[in-house]
């Protein structure tokens, strides 16, 4: 123990010397397109937090509120460029990928210190990956990404500042995934399996009543105080490794505070009262706040077309319990016909107050790396054409009430499952209901809690559903959603494997589904970026033509920010590796 | 009296057990499980879900989950784990209990101080204009939900340019040490919850006081006292009001469980760090041991409140005897 400690001290000293020799802080430049300018130090910035964090240990609980705080206290090996969403160095200064795409070697940034002054090194990275990210017992770990084709990814330390991952097969999205927050080994060692702890013990680290000094990170801020149910206060991490274009150490702010406010209306009230400096708002709240801004209130309401965010879609259950409906739903002619009865413009205008645009097919239009323009395939809103298309597929007979009859003679009547506790789903559902009625398709609204939408979708007990999945920079990260047979591809559950982890049942797929299935498998291991782009282009076109789901709109992101602060960049929430807060300064 | 209290206390044990079985059953009848909220998260694989199910003991049969929980309480005073917070339920509740008790007591006190005199006033001035107006206002405040009053007060403060629109402190005072300025800041915030939550109680209590005083005022002994030439003030305060207060004692006992669940919506709207929203979350997320513990706590408070009210009645009313 003693010998170990002395050895550790010696190595720390030598590391510190080494670090001083080639300390290389990251310079934040080239963000002019986002309106980022040089700022000055000082000030407190106050943000809302939707509820108390459930723990202070990121990998111990799955909790968005903790995610928001953790994002300010921890960093990953790589991060997003705030403007282009390209992957850039973070705690890793550089990396190499072997020509066969299987070996990733990360050279760690020299001179990085934890917020308590200890040096950061490869041991921290190994400790975090082994005990948290790759640990199946860690609640918020991500072990699934470290088994490729049934074989494990291995991680090894090359030297004190170099880490190497060896993959069983190429995985081009692997780099993008390494935005996981790295945790300090020296503070968490007793929860690690190396010290004899059980794999699940890690979840118990840093409960909300832990001493503030225990929570140590490399991020721009460090924990100062947590007052249960009321506030989380962070202060500047003096050892942060980023500097601005002029070389001034970031973050600019002295303090970052999160007020715990559960009710969205109460958040707005606190923002208007000046107790919060920034707030993400919805399209419904936009007119009121914008009006106040125009009338001279001391804040700005900003719109941005960001990549992240969840575009809603409507899906039909190919395996619906009613066989006649299932047959109609799996017929692409039906889905194309009904798309013409989806009034996207009206939804964008009245549900989103105009603060949304046309959606992509699985890829956000802002995603320059992968999006292909499929706007034309979205078609035009045309009820007459929709009616003609339904007639053409043999649904021309109608009953006395004007409802089309299925081949068996029952009326074409569909239950639409949607979330009632949402600002957007209920009005969207009624618009769909009224337009569908005009083409002779009766829609019955079936409201449930939004939090139950996914579970209901996966249970198969629905006919038509309004739901949304988030966008990501690389389609590979959304594979379980869009690859037929994936665990979230719930509108057609027949191809899903009987047991998790088995291969999908390709025999149950339609030809176009089979093609999409192959595209995802190929793109997952294709090292060439241009070949991947071509594959995903083909997928988006197949999606647009065959409409496994019918995308409705891509909402814009709206934020309101006090005029006292500069360098505001919209921040959706917990996106590891996307954090503009260190650049914010008080004017 | 002591044996009576003991007997009542012992009687609570089977009652509480029965309540706990019912609560557990009702929580389990809710569709879904605590883990449902994670299924959409791309970080959560089916394997992680299976691991979590095992860690939380959700793979055990329901009766085993229940018995383990009860055994923990009886043998170790351990009320189980919060699934969400990964911490023992006891300490989580303890953290939030302080402000909850403080706010509940304060609003209770304020509503009593206002309601009892108003009730007496409206009773002895029955059918007069001022009393009618007071009664009318009472009806309105009874009919207005506390969260609506809270929202209206927030809107009012905002429109007047104020900044204390929720919570108990301004941001900079939340984690500051106690000082004169902090107390003033607390007072500036406190009036909104006290008015919003207290007002609802006022109307009910006021009408209760009025009704029971009217009852008493027509009793023979009051008439006798008047006839014997006792001063009206003596009759009212010394005899009538003292007797009329009895039903209020029972009411006070019954209001104890309101400590936990009485002000959930107002607490959410006003952003108060009390237990109510914590219970609400636990129920929504199926964080079952937190919900169970709070519901049991609530039931215990109800039983204790009843007992205390009965004991207080015995002390206040010479007609009530337990022996």
Automatic annotation (TrEMBL), chain A:
InterPro entries: Peptide/Ni-bd (IPR030678), SBP_5 (IPR039424), SBP_5_dom (IPR000914). Residues 86-475 form the Solute-binding protein family domain. Keywords: Signal, Transport. GO terms for molecular function: peptide transmembrane transporter activity. One of its GO terms (biological process) is peptide transport. Residues 1-23 form the signal peptide. It comes from the Bacteria. GO terms for cellular component: ATP-binding cassette (ABC) transporter complex; periplasmic space. PANTHER family: OLIGOPEPTIDE-BINDING PROTEIN APPA (PTHR30290:SF9), PERIPLASMIC BINDING COMPONENT OF ABC TRANSPORTER (PTHR30290). Belongs to the bacterial solute-binding protein 5 family. This is ABC transporter substrate-binding protein. It comes from Deinococcus arcticus.
UniProtKB/TrEMBL annotation, chain B:
One of its GO terms (cellular component) is plasma membrane. Keywords: Cell membrane, Membrane, Transmembrane, Transmembrane helix, Transport. Gene3D superfamilies: MetI-like. One of its GO terms (biological process) is transmembrane transport. InterPro entries: BPD_transp_1_N (IPR045621), MetI-like (IPR000515), MetI-like_sf (IPR035906). It comes from the Bacteria. The chain crosses the membrane at residues 9-29, 97-124, 136-158, 186-206, 248-269, 289-316. It holds the Pfam family BPD_transp_1_N. It is a multi-pass membrane protein. It is found in: Cell membrane. The keyword Cell membrane applies. Residues 97-313 form the ABC transmembrane type-1 domain. Signal peptide: none annotated. Coiled coil: none annotated. Belongs to the binding-protein-dependent transport system permease family. This is ABC transporter permease.
